[in-house]
């Protein structure tokens, strides 16, 4: 090696470290303290966690990330094979008002898993909750983070990556979520009163039972895209949240409906009552989500925007009726399930007949006028009926085209009940009577259609 190469080697720059780890300089005593805490084995039942009630700083978190899993480092969410790793265990820790901007905290453990949550008491759940009130998590990577019940009130989550994060029952009141990525996140029962969600991305997110209020801002929020689908919206507490700021035209179907349609009874569970009940629950939830959203929109004067969702609610309810007709109602009714023998069979038969009749009538109303939301169907059926019967009159009565058309129109609107110059034995009289009956049903649907369309009833 010549002298020039040796000089270049001596002046070679040290390896570049990530920007987030440049401030991980902490004293030896603090490092030793963190190592001791890391050695603690978590015990959910006893409420023991490595950093429970410990006040951590940004430098502490950075040091923990560097030394995570014996120096392997943080979870890299962009590498799919790493998504099964567990992130830092910060359950019960105190990170209030800490600046955690841009940190790689994917798969962070800041709460309990679903099985742990079910098996513990409220006190045990509280002990595992991470405290991030007023913390700055802007542009941080929290993909797949476990934040069940986390306290994030007034936290800054600007452009934070929270894809597939678990935020079940999280406290996010007055949090700043501008542009946050919450695709496929679980936000069930979360509190978002006063949250700022402008341009937040929520496709595929589970928003069931979420709490909004009039101070929650949903301006330009995205609830649907082709990759993640639409958010689930059943049983949301809208509480006068302004819905006019959302582009509802971009959502072909709510996520609740997509979930119901993809939930299939497994081949080995076709006779399982539990599976059938769950299947019905999904469809009923989807119908309820559409109905509730339509009602919330109407209460804010958004009648036109509410129509597609009100229509989908009725279509989905018809699917429920079909399932009742096929499976019977006794397996879904505790009262009927309590009977045995002939009485139960009779109740089941009556339930199937009632569900079948309701299904057929619902289908007829949909075909006739789209439950009042599609008036063009009524007009099309009206014209088809008039011209179809005109052709029949022309073929059987020897009437000209013009006469047959006039006769069809007058029969449709009531003449079919009066034979006039035709005797009762004439086939035209019978045909005219049938057309009059059909016309009565179509005219009733016309009234219902236009009442629904123009008066929102």
Summed up:
It comes from Dictyobacter halimunensis. The chain is built from 14 helices and 2 strands.
Question: Which labels suit this protein?
Answer:
457 residues, mainly alpha, disordered N terminus
Verbal overview:
By secondary structure, this protein is mainly α. The chain contains 14 helices and two strands, in the order ααααααββαααααααα. It has a two-stranded antiparallel ribbon with strand order 1-2. Helix 7 packs antiparallel against helix 8 (273-299) and helix 9 (303-327) packs antiparallel against helix 11 (341-369). The longest helix is centred in the C-terminal third of the chain and has 29 residues, at 341-369. It is elongated. Residues 3-16 have low confidence and may be disordered. The chain crosses the membrane at residues 353-373, 379-397, 431-451. Keywords: Membrane, Transmembrane, Transmembrane helix. This is Pentapeptide repeat-containing protein. It comes from Dictyobacter halimunensis.
């Amino acid at each position: 090696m010549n002298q020039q190469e040796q000089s270049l080697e001596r002046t070679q720059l040290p390896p570049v470290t990530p920007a987030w780890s440049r401030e991980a300089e902490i004293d030896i005593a603090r490092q030793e303290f963190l190592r001791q805490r890391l050695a603690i084995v978590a015990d959910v039942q006893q409420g023991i966690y490595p950093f429970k009630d410990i006040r951590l700083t940004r430098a502490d978190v950075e040091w923990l990330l560097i030394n995570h899993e014996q120096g392997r480092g943080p979870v890299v969410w962009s590498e799919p094979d790493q998504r099964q790793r567990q992130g830092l265990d910060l359950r019960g820790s105190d990170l209030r008002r800490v600046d955690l901007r841009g940190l790689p905290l994917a798969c962070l453990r800041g709460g309990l898993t679903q099985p742990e949550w079910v098996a513990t008491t409220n006190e045990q759940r509280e002990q595992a909750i991470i405290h991030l009130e007023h913390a700055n998590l802007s542009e941080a990577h929290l993909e797949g983070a476990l934040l069940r019940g986390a306290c994030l009130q007034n936290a800054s989550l600007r452009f934070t990556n929270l894809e597939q994060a678990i935020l079940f029952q999280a406290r996010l009141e007055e949090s700043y979520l501008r542009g946050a990525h919450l695709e496929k996140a679980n936000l069930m029962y979360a509190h978002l009163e006063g949250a700022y969600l402008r341009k937040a991305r929520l496709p595929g997110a589970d928003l069931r039972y979420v709490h909004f209020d009039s101070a929650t801002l949903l301006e330009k929020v995205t609830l649907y895209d082709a990759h993640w689908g639409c958010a689930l919206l059943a049983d949301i507490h809208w509480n006068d949240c302004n819905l006019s700021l959302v582009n509802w035209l971009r959502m072909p179907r709510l996520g609740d409906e997509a979930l119901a349609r993809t939930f299939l009874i497994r081949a080995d569970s076709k006779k399982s009552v539990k599976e059938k009940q769950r299947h019905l629950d999904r469809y009923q939830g989807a119908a309820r989500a559409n109905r509730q959203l339509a009602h919330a929109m109407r209460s804010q004067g958004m009648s036109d925007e509410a129509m597609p969702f009100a229509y989908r609610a009725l279509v989905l309810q018809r699917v429920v009726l079909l399932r009742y007709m096929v499976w019977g109602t006794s397996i879904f009714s505790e009262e009927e399930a309590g009977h045995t023998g002939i009485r139960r069979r009779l109740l089941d038969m009556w339930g199937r007949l009632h569900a079948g009749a309701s299904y057929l009538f619902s289908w007829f109303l949909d075909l006739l006028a789209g439950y009042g939301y599609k008036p063009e169907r009524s007009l099309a059926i009206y014209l088809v009926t008039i011209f179809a019967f005109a052709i029949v009159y022309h073929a059987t009565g020897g009437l000209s085209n013009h006469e047959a058309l006039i006769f069809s129109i007058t029969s449709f609107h009531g003449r079919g009940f009066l034979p006039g110059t035709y005797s009762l034995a004439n086939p035209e009289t019978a045909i005219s009577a049938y057309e009059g009956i059909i016309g009565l049903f179509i005219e009733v649907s016309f009234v219902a259609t236009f009442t629904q369309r123009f008066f929102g009833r």
